[in-house]
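User: I'm putting together notes for a lab meeting next week and I want to include a structural view of one of the chains we've been expressing. I don't have a solved structure, so I'd like a prediction I can at least talk through. The sequence is below, exactly as it appears in our construct file.
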Amino acid sequence: MAKFSFIGDTHGDNAAFLRQLEAGLQNHSHTIHVGDVGVGMPGVEDLNTNAAYLRMLSNAKTRGLTAGFIRGNHDNPDVCEATQGYLGNSNFFVIDNIKVLLISGAKSIDADGRVPGMNWWDREQLSYQELYHLFQIYNLYRPDIVVTHCAPSCFVQAMGIKNIDLSPTICLFDQMINLYQPTMWVCGHYHNSETYRHGRTTFRCVNIGERYEVAL
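Assistant: Thanks for the context. Below is the predicted structure for the 216-residue chain, given as structure tokens.
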């Protein structure tokens, strides 16, 4: 059995991120931030300069625990890729026989009010080529847990959100969940604490600054 902790959006509040990261690791959980850390946003501290953060990552590695973050639509992709603890635009790994798929990115519904290169980036979603490759990975390996920033439309609708923008990312997730239903799918993005059952999949949305823990 493996324990996982998932941290919701913190939007530049690194103190909140580090508190939840430390709590998850102290509980011997693989601890993953589900995006919108605020990496590269104006006025947000560079995590590479935060000694406490770097120490937690080092200790987690020594103990065999996964620790870090994927990116959301409010994270600078270039800065993420240069930041320690970034778990990648996508990643697939196995922990104690639990297959985990991580997918970064989401579409900003408020992009028109943001400044390109400052607080909005045209790489906020993965490319069509990357998304197609991930569909193949998903089909081939059939993960037990999927961790993303946004969610398939079935879960978005279940949270009562209307006028869903079917971005390339959400369209990919819809194809995934129609093909195969993993045990668990965890997301952030919607600033809500919601659990929803769809077939054999438990969906969990993690709220701002929340830490959700599960054992599989």
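A couple of points you could mention at the meeting. The beta strands are 3-7, 30-33, 67-69, 90-95, 98-103, 145-148, 184-187, 194-198, 201-205, 211-215. The chain is about 30% helix and 20% strand.

User: Perfect, that's what I needed.
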